[in-house]
């Protein structure tokens, strides 16, 4: 009698048990990338460029895990399994962009189960139908502008109150949470001013009222910080940035409990269609294998440059978690294995700032971050260009602020470029 063929789900469970026993750097190379599904002996997961999957019988169809590539694709599943393993989470879903991941995670937390209710009764479930129990959410006063727009301008149109709070001040967080607070969303380090927020303290407070803690971990990646270990319920990664690391594709991911990720995959992703292409998933798998090596170099380069900037007479402020001068350096040491490649700094005047950005030669001016190549942005004119002046002021983004994504070039060459530009202003 032939041995019963194991389902993809059974193979996945066996593989995950094996991957969890490995150390992080080995997981980067091997997790998610056993021959899976077992259709070839390829060393690397293939690109499954298909829209659907066919079977000989209906029973065979229901035993397998792949039906339609809007929700299931083997190349994406390899990436999902790797990300879940690296974060120590139960499950993960990779999607088209970091912003897509943010919206899917937030939507799933705010979800009311309405799919079996007659349409004319759905209006009774809208928040506006009972103004005494309007749900609210908490975000940091300084938030990446894309997330800021989503949560402060779009979600309120759906009846969700968004409260902007200084999440670095735990007493202020405690005062702002009530029984209608559905989730607390934080980035640490934050974009663009590199604030560091105590994940454990925020998670403990929101859990007291039954809410969820969602952490955007893009600036750190799982190589430097694993928020689930500090009480986060969901982790967001913009795969576009450090995890891919090569600046050649977009992607995002949500990592969290298995049942919640299943809900995101088969309800929210199925409905909204924020699908990552198999080719982009393959590129991200290619990039992630060197994540630890890259993050070590990003961090060491950034530390040298942060110290240089801190000691330069024409630089007024430097924000880098690895500096003792950072207001939450102690929290960063508790949460982070190393301090990453992102620096915020300001010069002495707007005139000097305008001139400085034009004088750089080696360092490229551009939005985004996490590339091999160093990128610097003049924050108020680039990421913050669509913000009103009062919004930038409320986020502590001055017209002298720069966000510097330190790349993998020789740090002395980067310092030479900064030095020649600063000497001319």
Give a description of the structure.
The protein has 425 residues and is an alpha/beta fold. It has 3 domains: 143 residues, Type I PLP-dependent aspartate aminotransferase-like (Major domain) (Aspartate Aminotransferase, domain 2, 3-Layer(aba) Sandwich), CATH 3.40.640.10; 120 residues, Type I PLP-dependent aspartate aminotransferase-like (Major domain) (Aspartate Aminotransferase, domain 2, 3-Layer(aba) Sandwich); 133 residues, Aspartate Aminotransferase, domain 1, CATH 3.90.1150. It has 17 helices and 12 strands. The strands form 2 sheets. It has a 7-stranded mixed β-sheet, sandwiched between helices. Strand 5, helix 10 and strand 6 form a beta-alpha-beta unit. Helix 4 packs parallel to helix 12. It is globular. It starts with 7 loop residues before the first helix and ends with a helix. The model has no long low-confidence stretch (mean pLDDT 92).
State the share of residues found in helices, binned by percent: 25-40%
Succession of helices and strands: HHHHEHHEHEHEHEHEEHHHEHEHEEHEH
Number of strands: 12
- Calculate the mean pLDDT score and round it: 92
Main sheet properties = 7 strands, mixed
Layout of secondary structure:
Elements: H1 8-20, H2 24-30, H3 58-63, H4 74-87, E1 91-95, H5 98-110, H6 119-122, E2 136-140, H7 145-154, E3 161-165, H8 170-176, E4 181-187, H9 199-207, E5 212-216, H10 221-224, E6 234-238, E7 252-256, H11 258-272, H12 278-288, H13 291-310, E8 315-319, H14 329-335, E9 342-347, H15 350-359, E10 364-365, E11 375-378, H16 389-394, E12 401-405, H17 411-423
Parallel strand pairs: 2-3, 2-4, 4-5, 5-6, 10-11
Antiparallel strand pairs: 1-7, 6-7, 8-9, 9-12, 11-12
Helix pairs in contact: 4-12, 5-11
